[in-house]
Write a structure and sequence with these properties.
Layout (H helix, E strand, L loop, with lengths): L10 E2 L5 E5 L2 H4 L12 H6 L17 H15 L3 E5 L2 H4 L9 H16 L3 E7 L5 H5 L7 H17 L5 E6 L1 H9 L11 H25 L5 E6 L4 E3 L4 H24 L4 H6 L13 H5 L6 E4 L4 E5 L26 E4 L14 H14 L5 E6 L16 H19 L4 E7 L18 E3 L6 E3 L1 H12 L1 E2 L6
């Protein structure tokens, strides 16, 4: 009987499996005006009235910039073997151009040294959505030059940290950067131009390719270069041909637009057809696809919940329960006649359905899509309405069950032949959750936002035990 169906059976992982947690710079660092850092698009967006819940910002966040030593000590106490964090571009290269600010680089040097001293492997993400505002003022990701500025930035960081950091990720979830940032406007910079979002997607792809090449030009050959995609598991509401076609269209916009050029050197022809009313793709220049199609050492997959879609009448208002925030503008350019439905089942505080089978499905898809390419789950986790109990503890059995289910799905995929080498829990600690402000808690570590005191939740202890033993404790063993 498979492990997921028999919780009494120990779910064990390969000895070399990497157990980590993840964060991103703007969500945790704070110190937004210190040591030469200048505004990113998220500073501007969060300070724009009405853009974030309660007008909350990342100005202080959880003050990781000043508390990183304590945070690393907490990771070590929990038994984590790896930590994935992102670099704040505007802390390192404030205008997005020119020389680096050494004080900014020094922070990341200190962080990496602290991790290595605790025997925790650092994994660097170069871009987690916080474009320097000056580059957005010059046109942002819809402009080709931004991709070349990213390559310059990648080289700067690679030169500074490449001797000590072996795992590198160019971009985190470029889908969100392109389509939530430039189509639906629920993320920074808050633009609502579907044609511009497709241009942004291409230039993010180009930035990945140029950035990967820049990293490899300055780093030891032992280092690995990857990208983290929030590839969607897109399911049709029925087997009706119209619903199947709707699912295929969303699959192109969610997945093919990125993995097509990155893994195969081509965009899906069906994507060109579906978006012909918005763009002629004339910004895809000769040689671009070769630049994007750099060999990868690994692929990062971020997974939270599947999508359920059907065909709809484009002239009528259609439901869009896609889990990507409320907006009058769709993040799905060229798909106004596709309806998104809430999938059945229990949900997290984000309203996202809990479905570990989607993670297994995603892993197996990319095992077929890119045979021989190692996979990492670079984000997976859940938000719940966590509270500190009268005993000073934070009990979150729902998150423990969530992790057990999804890690069991990972182990089942490994048993089915997938080369999954690690898992990064999202997130290490509660933080600024983008347009939701501080209202959604994804952390394994509870943060009291008034005092910034950290308290490991039950899930943190449970996950730490899994990391130390390579086996999943029973859900009740918390």
């Amino acid at each position: 009987m498979p492990d997921s169906e028999n919780p009494a059976t120990a779910v064990t992982f390969p000895p070399a499996f990497l157990w980590g947690a993840a964060t991103s710079a703007y969500q945790i660092e704070g110190a937004v005006r210190e040591d030469g850092r200048t505004p990113s698009i998220w500073d501007t967006f969060s300070h724009t009235p009405g853009k974030t819940a309660g007008g909350e910002t990342g100005d202080i966040a959880v003050d990781h910039y000043h508390r990183y030593r304590d945070d690393v000590a907490l990771m070590a106490e929990l038994g984590l073997g790896a930590y994935r964090f992102s670099i704040s571009w505007s802390r390192v290269q404030p205008t997005g151009r020119g020389p680096a600010v050494q004080k900014g680089l020094d922070f990341y040097r200190r962080l990496v040294d602290e991790l290595l001293a605790r025997d925790i492997k650092p994994a660097v993400t170069l871009y987690h959505w916080d474009l320097p505002q000056e580059l957005e003022d010059a046109g942002g990701w819809p402009e080709r030059d931004t991709a070349y500025r990213f390559a310059e930035y990648a080289q700067i960081v690679g030169e500074a940290l490449g001797d000590r950091v072996e795992q590198w990720i160019t971009l985190n979830e470029p889908w969100c950067s392109a389509f939530l940032g430039y189509a639906s406007g629920v993320h920074a910079p808050g633009r609502t131009d579907p044609a511009a979002s497709l241009r942004a997607a291409h230039h993010l792809n180009l930035a990945h390719g140029l950035g990967a090449s820049a990293l490899r030009s300055v780093m030891p050959a032992r280092n690995t270069v990857a990208v983290s995609l929030n590839s969607s598991v897109v399911r049709p509401l029925s087997q009706d041909p119209a619903d199947l076609a709707a699912a295929a269209r969303i699959d192109d916009l969610a997945n093919g637009v990125f993995h097509g050029p990155m893994l195969h050197g081509a965009y899906p022809e069906s994507l060109y057809v579906a978006t012909a009313g918005l763009t002629d793709w004339d910004y895809v220049l000769d040689g671009d696809l070769e630049l994007i199609n750099q060999p990868l050492d690994a692929l990062g997959l971020n997974y939270y919940t599947p999508a359920l879609v059907s065909a709809a009448d484009a002239s009528a208002e259609v439901p869009r329960a896609d889990g990507h925030g409320a907006s009058d503008h769709s993040p799905w350019p060229g798909a106004d006649d596709v309806a998104f439905h809430q999938t059945p089942g229990d949900r997290t505080e984000m309203g996202w359905t809990i479905d570990p089978t989607g993670l297994h499905e995603l892993i197996m898809r990319y095992t077929r899509e890119a045979p021989g390419l190692p996979l990492y789950i670079t984000e997976n986790g859940a938000a719940y309405d966590d509270k500190i109990d009268s005993d000073g503890r934070v009990h979150d059995p729902e998150r423990v069950a969530y992790l057990h289910g999804h890690l069991s799905a990972v182990r089942r995929a490994i048993a089915d032949g997938a080369d999954v080498r690690g898992y990064y829990l999202w997130s290490l600690m509660d933080n600024f959750e983008w347009s939701y402000g501080y209202g959604k808690r994804f952390g394994a570590v509870y943060v009291d936002y008034a005092t910034l005191e950290r308290t490991p939740k039950t899930s943190a202890r449970w996950y730490g035990r899994a990391a130390r033993t390579g086996a999943l404790p029973e859900v009740e063993a918390v």
